[in-house]
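Quick one: co-fold with aspartic acid.
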Amino acid sequence: MKKLFTLLFAALCALSAMADEGMWIPLLLQKNEAAMQKSGMRITAKDIYDINNACLKDAIILFNQGCTGEYVSSEGLFLTNHHCGYSYITSHSTVEHDYLTHGFWAMTREQELPCPGLTATRLVKMEDVTFQVLDGITPETSEADRTEIVEKNIAAITKEATKGTHYKAIIKPFYYGNQYFMYINEVFTDVRLVGAPPSNIGKFGGDTDNWMWPRHTGDFSMFRVYADKDNKPAAYSKDNKPYKPLKHFDISLKGVEEGDFTFVFGYPGTTRRYVTSDQVNLSANQENPIRIALRDIRLHHYKNAMEQSPAQRLKYASKVASIANGWKKWQGETLGINRLKGVEQKKAQEDEFQQWAENYKRLRIRDYDYTTVLPELHKNYEALTSVDLEWTYFNEAVMASDFMGRAHRLYAIAQMSNDSLAQLQIRKFLKDNERYFTDFAEHTLVDKAIFVETFEYMHKAGYAPYLDKADLGKIYDNSMLTKKGAVEKFFKGYKASEKSAKKLLADPAVDLFNVAYSYSYTPEKRSQYKEANQNINRLMRIYVKGMMTQYPDSNFFPDANLTLRVAYGHVEGFTPRDGVYYKPYSTLDGIMQKENPDIYDYVVTPRLHELYNKKDYGRYANAKGEMPVAFIATNHTTGGNSGSPVLNADGQLIGINFDRCWEGTMSDLLFDPGYCRNISLDIRYCLFIIDKYAGARHLVDEMTIVR
Ligand code: ARG
Ligand code: ASP
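Sure, here it is.
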């Protein structure tokens, strides 16, 4: 009885957002204002979002399509994470100018480096367009028709909304399509790299410390937006001027104490807060273990190779970083879900919903019958799961090796009947192939082992019966992909035709890819998946609406969908496991404690030592004279929030969000205030590095610093 009660209580809490849970819509922030002020906020919802006046939202940018940035000067200077700017720092790095390793600081505007392809998007305004988007839809409209009508309406609304302007409009569904918001954006394309700390500051702790607390990563980089003479977006030009944002953040050097109010303003990517027990079980207990096990294999081989030489380490670093990022997060997520009894919690919540739905139907208050939605969802998950798991294997095993990745490209060429398209792809392939063979010798052992072991793993699990008699080692050795010059020879005089395709498909690697792909992606499996998925989306729309009817007084936050949101909470430590308490902030002392000159991720430069030994922190030290580095708080964040400004009760910048604590990574599915913490770089460490470490004081002087 007590257990049932606990679960029911958990389910209840799980429904109405718990303290600190939620990623709120800026336009509707009035609803949260009282709670935020009660939590300590001293500004108003209007200071944060206001269509008629410059407000904090004007200081936020969407950095490409996956990170956040914030303006810190009236001259278009903005901050984001080092890991967000990473590819731009790398692309400007050469052996002579290795900015990635040694850092980069533009000492003049002329030295700032253009970053083609990089966009910085400002939200001009947002608007609820639900009625317009759903215009023409009745309860009888089929799902396929609904999709079509919605698409047509969206195209018309966005066209009308941006007519005669340089703005771009985008409309996104909320609550699975119960509501729609339109975003009018201004997209800047002349964005230049201004500064980045050296790797051993910006990536300090590397993958070992990733997703973990205590953390000491100086994860920031700086860029500047340029605009035309009218302060409007323009393609790169020498004549462009630094953009003058409507608003930039004041920076506070006061720091924060445990218990202080903070909020995060940025672009969270994806959460799945309202999914059923079946989905939680599928993610945490079925998909994650498969992905983790297969990535174990890859990481094992890459890490071994990285230990062989510094050149190898560099070669695999970014590959390993991206494989390890998901691998580590999923482990934390599954542990977290099971610690919370996430599946049982969801089931208890579903039982309660079902009971409510029966009563609701009996009352006949409205005509909606919610009693069938959960059983139907369950049925559709049954249809989805087998294909979903097979495809998870395909992605993580078949696609694990470079060998199969390259075979995939040849397979695609074999499918092309248009010769000029085929030639284009062949040229691209051959170019990459040349590079591939430059360091092929050492790599082949690693890649072969990964290829063989991941396929074997999938075979053992019963997902690749076509391997029953296959000799994977032979396939690897006999393919032209593993012989220098062989692919070049094959493509000499190649013309797209059925005959050529047949020859290409006869290569053992391309053949294996073909067999694997044809096995897992049959028309039946595709349509089974598509149908189940569409049904789930439609049913979730009904289920979420039902829950909102069931709990009319709760403020349901919509799942993250890469739109601008506000999350708020408190600076707070936590207990990750028995007997351990995590303090909410870290300092430069911790960097010295972690220092290890033999381990790449823990190297500390003499310059940082010198500043540390002299305690030369200037105005950036905290009241105790320490140099703060990072802090944690209970703000609900996710991927995409990287680079987001972390603000104090007065809306001043105190940090840059960059990660979450491992024990709370289940927060995309279930938020637990006891464990879920976002990790922020303390703005004082960022300024200390720019000013004291790099001597780029002129950049700090551009900023508005308040004490
Ligand atoms: N965990 C952070 C996020 O999800 C940082 C990832 C980059 N750092 C790394 N060592 N892989 O984006
Ligand atoms: N590190 C993530 C990002 O890059 C943030 C997170 O997942 O908490 O967006």
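If it helps, The pocket of aspartic acid (ligand 2) is lined by residues 637-642, 658-660 (CB under 6 Å).
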